[in-house]
Amino acid sequence: MKIIVLFLLLVAYAMAVQSGPLSLDMACDRAFSAVLCTFEFTNNGREDLYLLTYNTPLEGPYSPFITLSLKGKPLQYEGVFASRTPPTREGFALIKARQSVSASIQITEIFSINRDGHYTVRYAQPLQYLSANEMRQQSYFDDVIEASQSVLPTQSVNLYLDKTRSLDKPMKQDEQTARKEVITITACRTTVSVGSDASIVEAHKKLCSHVHKVEDAVDKKNKTLYREWFEARPTHGPDHGPDHGPDHKPDHGPDHKPDHGPDHGPDHGPDHGPDHGPDHGPDHKPDHGPDHKPDHGPDHGPDHKPDHGPDHKPDHGPDHEPNHGPHHGPHHGPNHGPNHGRKNKVKDVFRKVNTGIRTKSVKYVINGVNCQPNWGAYTYKGSTTTYICPGLSNFPTLCSDDTKYNKEGVLLHEWSHAFGHTSDHAYGPRESRKLAKNYPDKAVDNADNYMYYYCLSIH
Ligand SMILES: [Zn+2]
């Protein structure tokens, strides 16, 4: 197995060198009761660069930066979904020219591995970075730093795991509330408020009175606002149905051109499996280049042989299955236009948030144990608890008529994860608007887009 891993690393390294300054080496192995993966990010260029640590292993086991599959079936990511403040200088890791930074992650903290067998670990998040020169220019003008480049690594590692019952499992949520201050709010009525953070209660009350209005407004007004945050190109083809479900991976970098074209067929069909994604080849750049055909053609069959050009590796591997897996949402039928489907998804997320906070007993745990710098709060899909992080205390309580970070918006962001099963593809107003313009299917799955839309539409 080690030989195979080494071989994969060599192949990956050889290919990555051609694709830009940043490359990733990945290795996974069992370490007693854990499965440990090491990620080494190397700057092969001549200039220092800054890698955004958000949603990477450099931040810790706090985002689905990998997928883990057993015989083609992806395991559910059981880690946190956080609200991260728009990145500042501190959100980036410096990688000097010809040097590397690395991180080791116990992936048993974010996946429950209960069955013996052959597993595939795949890198699944685009790496966003900028050059040292760009960093100097940007930080001179602005606190918020925007990465200029994006690359989606293609690395995957296979490993056989047995005696998996004895492996560590992800932390249970109730282990995180011990000795913590907890605010409980049942059906929008505060039941515990002694010593609690009054601003969180205030922000939550606003959420209670506003979310249903925002849900209604999606159809009736704010058309400009809806387009700005969810689909800035309304004629965009039905390339990726909005119904891929909460576990659909972010399979293209934020700069991936959305031009699969309207010919991609309204029924995206069984080809867009759960493992579709990091196999775009190491040359997956902001532009597919001259080899990338602007559309996949009308007969985009179940074999999904996209013409990504000679650099596209046909490495769907043993775990590329012709089905969406158990987490795939309701099928996006051919009779529903993509816009209609997206709008329904947006309404559905707001409806679920509204129903969740109105009918359930929700908790806010103050200073959650997993909190990181630059986090406002975090939660889990399907949870009724949101963990508030110290970083949130510096921000205003309520939404304003701009895109400034605030508590009320962060709570909406978190409940959109917990009740609406959204993910995090991008953070901050600029990146979120870009999603709406270039990847509307990701925009309607991205928690920050809901946050901005919510705050702006109640003003
Ligand atoms: Zn989030």
TrEMBL record:
Coiled-coil stretches noted in the UniProt entry, renumbered to this chain: none
Disordered, as annotated region: 232-344
Keyword field contains Signal: yes
GO function term, MF aspect, one: metal ion binding
Domain Lysine-specific metallo-endopeptidase: 215-455
Signal peptide: 1-16
Cofactor: Zn(2+)
Keywords attached to this entry: Hydrolase, Metal-binding, Metalloprotease, Protease, Signal, Zinc
SUPFAM superfamilies the UniProt entry points to: Metalloproteases ('zincins'), catalytic domain
GO biological process, alphabetically ordered: proteolysis
Bias-annotated ranges (Basic residues): 325-344
Entries under InterPro entries matching the protein: Fungal_M35_metalloproteases, Lys_MEP, MetalloPept_cat_dom_sf
Compositionally skewed regions (Basic and acidic residues) per UniProt: 232-324
Domain of life: Eukaryota
A Pfam entry, by short name: Aspzincin_M35
Protein family per UniProt: Belongs to the peptidase M35 family.
Protein's name in the database: Lysine-specific metallo-endopeptidase domain-containing protein
